[in-house]
């Protein structure tokens, strides 16, 4: 009988990537929960500079949740407390922003962006993207010839989160701050007004929530223990 092959274990994630991943994961979860509690204070969203009870909103919490408030099992804290939610939100917003800045600087220095996340032209072709989708549908998530490399869909999603969604949610949050309006008045104009910034902030937050759901589903399908261990220790067992 042939002896079983020894599993191949490679080092996949650098320490800086792992630290940033877990800090960001905790920060985003707290920010989503506290943000939904803040939304409960005025559960309507508008476009432009101003918004009030009798203005026409493009979104109402009441369209989704009975009573016009997000339920406590989705908010932080679970009972209505706007002041506490704002404290949680501001603290973890600072954690998120400075962690992202540090990660970007370190990833430039250790060439993580260039080595692992650089999207090549051939990876954007319809044929290549269609092949990536078929591979994911068949639960094939890595290239056997180069198991350490990210696949094309991973690169596109990570680039979108790191360079678009996270900076956008940070800067729209800053645009809603009266202090930042005084220091950087151009910022609120960039987003078309305070209420537009609030709406974009909400939309981007929901996109981040959707990314988390899809990300967790793929982690489970790819092998939860192996994937989580790689993000804790850096070591990843190459699937057979």
UniProtKB/TrEMBL annotation:
User: What Gene Ontology terms describe where this protein resides (cellular component)?
Assistant: plasma membrane
What parts of the sequence cross the membrane? Answer: 19-39, 88-109, 156-180, 200-225
Q: What is its main location?
A: membrane
Q: Name one GO biological process term.
A: respiratory electron transport chain
Q: Could you cite one Gene Ontology molecular function of this protein?
A: heme binding
Every copy of the Cytochrome b561 bacterial/Ni-hydrogenase domain together lies at 12-234
Entries under PANTHER family matching the protein: CYTOCHROME YDHU-RELATED (PTHR30485:SF1), NI/FE-HYDROGENASE 1 B-TYPE CYTOCHROME SUBUNIT (PTHR30485)
Q: Which family does it belong to?
A: Belongs to the HupC/HyaC/HydC family.
- What's this protein's name? DUF4405 domain-containing protein
